[in-house]
Amino acid sequence: MIVILKKDPDQQQLQHFRQWLEARNVSIHPTVGLNQTIWGLVGDTSHLDINLIAALDVVDDVKRVQEPYKNANRKFHPADTVIRVGDVEIGGGTVTLIAGPCSVENEEQICQVALQVKAAGAHMLRGGAFKPRTSPYSFQGLRAEGIRLLSLAKQVSGLPIVTEIMDASQLDCFDDVDVIQVGARNMQNFELLKVLGELRKPILLKRGLSATYEELLMSAEYIMAGGNENVILCERGIRTYETYTRNTLDITAIPVLKQLSHLPVLVDPSHAAGRYKLVPPLARAAIAAGADGLLIEVHNDPEHALSDGPQSLRPEAFDRLAGELRGMAGLLGRKPQPGEAAEAPAAG
Fold it and tell me: How many Cα atoms occupy the beta-carbon half-sphere of 339 within 13 Å?
């Protein structure tokens, strides 16, 4: 249920209304705008009399929400959520570039790539330390040592770091991680999502291989229901009958998710394509469709990468793509990141 309050309501009446709701085990999630305050009522609201609430002097309007996800619902939170990671803003009209190798392999590799993607214009560094792999014989990541090397690359480059968690038991290793990624295979690991809901650290939630939009938003709801509202959605391609690409990038997911939810939406064209030559056009399509940013795999020696070399861009290719994306962002009227100058649109 959504309650839209009148402008400058009587504070004593408002407090009585709040107490009345809380006595009925209904929690209140307020959204305060310039001209309007909205209370999102979460809990069993089926027993609340909508006409009684609408008749209150402090209430302008009241509506029931049919969707099962409440916290992630744009009806509860009309304005876009902007998640801040250091000096980086994710959402709200900016374009955030997150780049780095699929796997952290050694100190030289991750530090070199970190400096290269930063020079090209990346805002954050990605790299896998704990690697969920289809085959038990594939490289599984350096685990805690990989996160230590990511932290070292963070010190060298100044870039915030993003890396994937596979199990709640690994959480002690993530103190220095700026954004915790939940991979596609764990999108419906609800016990893990509950634990992450107890944090206040941003969570990057990837869509499952065959998940619907509602299922993705319900997974976000698990995190937000625990009190952690710093959730970033990520479309990374879904499984279809097509075998030419690794997955099929669902461009439709971007406008749909942004219509249904206030949460930022990123796109991972690398995992969608599985082929490095397809990454730039998919990245451009994602930004044109309204994505708030991209996760792009970049490796300085993709032929010898321990994982996902075929979908990784070389640093010089990422540099060209980042320049193109800045130009697109300028033409589309997207906001620069704090401290960045706006890209001038091309003449003509």
Answer: 6
Residue-wise pLDDT tens digits, 201-239: 999 999 999 999 999 999 999 999 999 999 999 999 999
C-alpha distances (whole Å) from 71 to each of 31, 108, 348 are 11, 42, 44
Q: Are 40 and 55 a contacting pair, CB within 8 Å?
A: no
CA–CA gap between residue 235 and residue 206 (Å, rounded): 6
Per residue in 51-61, pLDDT (tens digit) is 999 999 999 99
231-235 vs 161-165, strand pairing mode: unpaired
Gap between the Cα atoms of 186 and 128, Å rounded: 15
pLDDT tens figures, 162-187: 999 999 999 999 999 999 999 999 99
Considering Cα of 98, then 101, then 107, then 108, what sign does the dihedral take? Answer: negative
> 3-state SS of the chain: helix, strand, coil percent to 5?
35, 20, 45
Entry pTM = 0.89
Give dist(CA 37, CA 300) in Å, integer: 50
| Cβ–Cβ < 8 Å for 205, 231 | yes
- CA–CA distance from 57 to each of 7, 17, 51, 233 (Å)? 11, 10, 12, 38
Q: Is 5 in a helix, a strand, or coil? A: strand
Show the tokens assigned to 17: 């209304």
Helix (H, G, I), strand (E, B) or coil at 246: coil
Q: Which two tokens stand for residue 61?
A: 């309007």
* Alpha-carbon dihedral angle through residues 259, 185, 250, 272, given to the nearest 10 degrees: 140
Strand pairing class (203-206; 179-182): parallel
